[in-house]
Amino acid sequence: MERASLNQTTGTASGVVLSGGRSSRFGEADKLMTDHGGMPLLHHAVLRLAEVTGDVVVVLAPDAPEPAMPPGVPVRYARDAVEGQGPLAGAVAGLAAVTRDLGVLAGGDMPGLSTAVVLEMLRVAGEARADAVALQEGDGFRPLPVVVHADRGRERAHSLLHEGQRSLRAWLQAMRVAVVDEATWTALDPARSTLRDIDVPGDLRQP
């Protein structure tokens, strides 16, 4: 069942991994290259999105070296236009490289993405009259991971950056968002690992 769904989504969406941030809370180490579960932290998000989309764009800081990627994984690189402008600028850079209808955005520090949850988000994106699809958390929704219609996402993000906005939440609030309810997505991911991100070294020790 999941394999059929994977085949149906390949060609309609690209993965976008945001990895151009400074990671100042993590300390001096390169957070995304830190070992987690036997591979660099960044590789987890790349591999999960590659499984679903077959096409992944990794967004880097302007002068960052291109990191090594898992062998055989189709990865392209994009770069923030200016360093330190926040995740919305990274989304603009990533979506500029997307040639498919949908972009699946996740942070490079999100090692627990569930392919089943991402597939559900893509299913909703194909059926709902919305610009983006996010996951419910409590009374609101999380800005990452998110599925966005690439053209609309680029348009709104450019407008907000021009107005001085930098946050992904403001971006999503400026669009029509379909929210996958908590009961639905946690049935696919009972550990809620899809929303887990790594901010400080101690987070690496959490299951």
Which structural traits does this protein have?
single chain; 207 residues; alpha/beta; Spore Coat Polysaccharide Biosynthesis Protein SpsA, Chain A; two-stranded antiparallel ribbon; 7 helices; 34% helix; 22% strand; globular
**Name given to the CATH architecture:** Alpha-Beta Complex
Shape: globular
What structural class is derived from the secondary structure elements? alpha/beta
The Cα radius of gyration reads 16 Å
- Report the top-level CATH class: Alpha Beta
Helix share of residues? 25-40%
Largest beta sheet: strand ordering: 5-4-1-6-8-7-9
Are there runs of 5+ residues with pLDDT below 50, and where? 1-5
- Looking at this structure, what is the CATH superfamily? Spore Coat Polysaccharide Biosynthesis Protein SpsA, Chain A
Mean pLDDT, to the nearest integer, reads: 88
Estimate nothing, just give the exact number of structural domains.
Answer: 1
- Beta-strand content: 15-25%
Number of DSSP helices?
Answer: 7
The name of the CATH topology is Spore Coat Polysaccharide Biosynthesis Protein SpsA, Chain A
